Structure formats: structure tokens, C-alpha cells
Amino acid sequence: MDKTIRIRILDQEYIIKSPEQEERVLEIARFVDARFRNIQEHADGLSERKTAILAAFHIASEYFQVKEERDGLVRRIENRVRAISSQIDSAIG
Questions:
Q1: Nearest CA-CA partner of 27 in 7, 10, 47
Q2: pLDDT tens profile 11-67
Q3: How far apart are the C-alpha atoms of 49 and 41, rounded to whole Å?
Q4: What is the pLDDT of residues 12-27, one digit of tens each?
């Protein structure tokens, strides 16, 4: 069931409905807020809209990098499992 949770991003309050635990939503809000603030510190004069777009782009870029790393780990684990399974089959075969 969705819970109503109040968050703050760039000193603006938002009400979020989410099935996630409240602490998780607050953690995400703190992460997004930190990203916005970091971009604002390094790019003077950007509108909130452009700040939001840049933050979304950076977050998406990190997501895809982590996803690629995870996919590579999954492939390596699957290959290792197949190799071990083959060794077991050979040993008992």
C-alpha cells in the first residue's frame, strides 16, 4: 500500500506517495537533493529546470554504469557456475 511521505529537495517540500519504506524514500530524496545542490554549486545561474535535467542525466549515467558492471558480474558468475558444473559432471561422469 502506498504511503504518503513528505520530502524536501532544494528547500521545497513535496508529498510523495510510494510503496517504499519511508526511510528509503527519505534516503532517495537526500541523494537527489545532494545532486541538485552539487550541480548548482558548480554551474552558477542554472534554472531549477536545467539543474533537474542535469541531475537526472548524471543519475541515469551512474545507473547505466552500475547496471553494466552488474551485468558483467552476472555473466562471470554464470560462466563460472557452468565451468564448475562441467567439472563436477566430468568428475562423476
A1: 7
A2: 999 999 999 999 999 999 999 999 999 999 998 889 989 999 999 999 999 999 999
A3: 15
A4: 999 999 999 999 999 9
The dihedral through the CA atoms of 73, 74, 80, 81 has a sign that is positive
Its pTM stands at: 0.77
Question: CA distances (Å), 48 to each of 33, 36, 37, 51, 75, in order?
Answer: 12, 9, 10, 5, 40
DSSP the chain: --EEEEEEETTEEEEEEESS-HHHHHHHHHHHHHHHHHHHHHSTT--HHHHHHHHHHHHHHHHHHHHHHHHHHHHHHHHHHHHHHHHHHHHH-
